[in-house]
Design brief:
single chain; alpha+beta; FAD/NAD(P)-binding domain; Elongation Factor Tu (Ef-tu), domain 3; 3 domains; six-stranded antiparallel barrel; five-stranded parallel β-sheet; 14 helices; about 35% helix; binds flavin-adenine dinucleotide
Length: about 400
């Protein structure tokens, strides 16, 4: 009977263990944590955005962008949904393609996967931190490294997988936190902590405008968080790694244009001469933001009436629509959902996930230099890469 070892009982390791266990292979699954699947349990704010109906290589970032193509074609969303249905895990697919367990609870996913694997005879070695990969390799027919990335260190995130790979002569693309909050070099931003708004955020690299994303922006005591920030963070983080000057420009009111906004401010000032500029602004934006904006422009918040002239209204409107902040850093691996970089995929066979340097050694999931956008893509790659490795082992 074939015997394999899997290191890491996260998304990809658990899934590979199930597919190998179903084929009648003896599987030893090693996990350093007390419980498997810690990241599944916290994913999607406890709801687990388990995959996405619309998968393509453009949803992923890697030094080798086409690496994911074969995996996504071989085990795309339909096959994954079919597998979930077979094991009794029903999915709810939203209009935009994001899929969640029908129960809306991540614990359903972790429990069903773990119970099913155990039922197939997969042997779980929990609270076992693997350090000697060569010994395990010698004692098995194949070994799958599914140790994930450094993201979420408190959940088991580490760089063990890259270190294991190095023992076999692999190289790594420098890792960087992704889907992560950002630190801003602005005391004023910190004073706006706690305020959340729907904004448009534009990335500025070395002074040149880059991508823009829309969504929630939450000011915090270190900088900014929120979905729009997470969505832009991959590009920010990789640019910081490359020593580029990174700024973001926040448009607080994407539905307005400069002219409309400045005219509105001037008109209210004219019609309501007793209102201060702060009174006028709180009719448009949250109080903390209004105070921050006036501080940034060095304008007293008590001016009113004719003091609020057209030029000043334009300056205020301009900042509301293009408020530039210098990004100092990300909030780090501990707070990141995922990590970019990882084992260089040029050294991995895209059709099997087997190392090109060592036969019967496989790498799956986030340990590889593949990182997805927000929206279920990171789990999608965990499932499809695990599928290819298991397929090659069990054929
Ligand atoms: C807060 C949060 C929310 C997220 N939400 C989503 C989401 O909604 N949708 C989505 O697609 N993605 C989400 N992700 C990302 C997703 O969780 C990961 O991309 C995915 O879990 C990667 O799977 P993996 O199997 O490669 O690694 P992991 O799931 O991280 O599993 C790796 C396992 O290996 C174990 N391990 C590591 N080293 C060793 C060792 N030496 N010995 C033994 N065991 C070891 C770890 O303890 C861990 O259990 C989220 C991540 C976080 C942190």
């Amino acid at each position: 009977m074939k015997k394999i070892v899997i290191i890491g009982a996260g998304a990809s390791g658990l899934f590979a263990s199930i597919l190998c266990g179903r084929a009648g292979i003896k599987v030893d699954l090693y996990e350093q944590n007390f419980k498997p699947a810690k990241k599944i349990l916290v994913s999607g704010n406890g709801r687990c955005n388990i995959s996405n109906r619309h998968l393509s290589s453009s949803d992923f970032f890697s030094q080798n962008p086409s690496f994911v193509d074969f995996a996504l074609e071989s085990f795309g969303f339909e096959k994954f949904e079919k597998f979930c249905n077979e094991i009794g895990l029903f999915l709810n697919v939203l209009e935009d393609g994001r899929a969640y367990p029908l129960s809306n609870e991540a614990k359903s996913v972790a429990k069903i996967f773990e119970d099913y694997a155990k039922g197939l005879g997969v042997v779980f070695h929990t609270e076992t931190h693997v350090t000697d990969i060569k010994q395990l390799m010698n004692d098995s027919d194949a070994l799958i490294v599914a140790t994930g990335s450094r993201a979420g260190e408190h959940l088991g995130g580490n760089s063990d997988g890259e270190e294991f790979a190095q023992e076999f002569g692999h190289t790594s693309i420098a890792p960087y936190p992704s889907l992560v909050q950002l630190h801003l070099n602005s005391q004023i931003a910190k004073k706006m902590s706690g305020v959340k708004l729907n904004a448009e955020v534009t990335l500025i690299l070395n002074g040149v405008k880059d991508i823009s994303v829309s969504g929630d922006v939450l000011f915090t005591n270190y900088g900014v968080s929120g979905f729009a920030i997470l969505d832009i963070s991959q590009a920010v983080s990789s640019a910081l790694l490359g020593y580029q000057a990174v700024d973001i420009s926040v448009n607080l009111l994407p539905a307005f244009n400069m002219q409309k906004l400045s005219q509105h401010i001037s008109k209210v000032a004219q019609n309501m001469p007793t209102l201060t500029i702060l009174d006028i602004l709180v009719g448009i934006i949250p109080l903390k933001i209004a105070n921050g904006l006036l501080e940034e422009l060095n304008i007293s918040n008590t001016i009113k009436d004719k003091e609020i002239h057209t030029k000043l209204a334009k300056r205020i409107a301009n900042l509301m629509l293009n408020w530039k902040f210098e990004v100092e850093d990300t909030h780090g691996f501990r707070h990141a959902e995922v990590s970019g970089g990882g084992i260089d995929t040029n050294e991995i066979d895209e059709k099997t996930m087997m190392s090109k340097k060592q036969r019967n050694l496989y790498f799956v999931g986030e340990v590889l230099d593949v990182v997805g956008r927000r929206g279920g893509y990171n789990f999608a790659f965990a499932w499809s890469s695990a599928y290819l490795a298991a397929k090659n082992i069990t054929h």
